[in-house]
Write a structure and sequence with these properties.
Layout lengths: L5 E3 L1 H8 L8 H12 L3 E2 L2 H8 L5 H11 L9 H16 L6 H9 L4 E3 L4 H6 L11
Parallel strand pairs: 1-2, 1-3
Helix pairs in contact: 1-3, 5-6
């Protein structure tokens, strides 16, 4: 049996990539380490952009960029963008708001589970066929 790939959201990557180790993040860091060692962690370009956006210090930015460079972006295709727009519309009809990146993650995750601590994904799950890693 092939292990399911896990699409890792920026909330998890951010905790994993922090310079300072925080004990409260140990479980998340350990889980992501295990996923990386098993070649199960997946990133998309939009998540990479979220992680790198808003980092004002050039040295920190370049350090993060270097650390992330070992991970190839999963290819996002036109059909994923179209599905993300459809997901946005479905959720909006149900009064659920979200970011375009979140809906792109949901669209790409048709083949993956999503590893996130962003509670918005619990709302999306009410309307969308997504699977959440660790929270289920």
């Amino acid at each position: 049996m092939v292990a399911t790939k896990i699409l890792v959201d920026s909330t998890i990557w951010s905790k994993f990539l922090r310079r300072k180790y925080h004990e409260e993040n140990k479980e998340i860091i350990d889980q992501l380490n295990a996923l990386i060692r098993a070649s199960r962690a997946v990133i998309i370009g939009a998540v990479r952009q979220e992680i790198l956006s808003g980092v004002p210090d050039n040295n920190v930015f370049n350090d993060l960029k270097s650390k992330l460079s070992i991970f190839s972006d999963h290819i996002v295709e036109t059909v994923n963008y179209e599905l993300a727009a459809e997901y946005f519309n479905i959720c909006r009809k149900h009064g659920i708001q979200g970011s375009t990146t979140d809906f792109l993650i949901c669209a790409v995750s048709v083949r993956f589970e999503i590893f996130t601590e962003d509670k918005d994904f619990l709302n999306y799950k009410q309307c969308l066929p997504i699977k959440l890693y660790k929270t289920e």
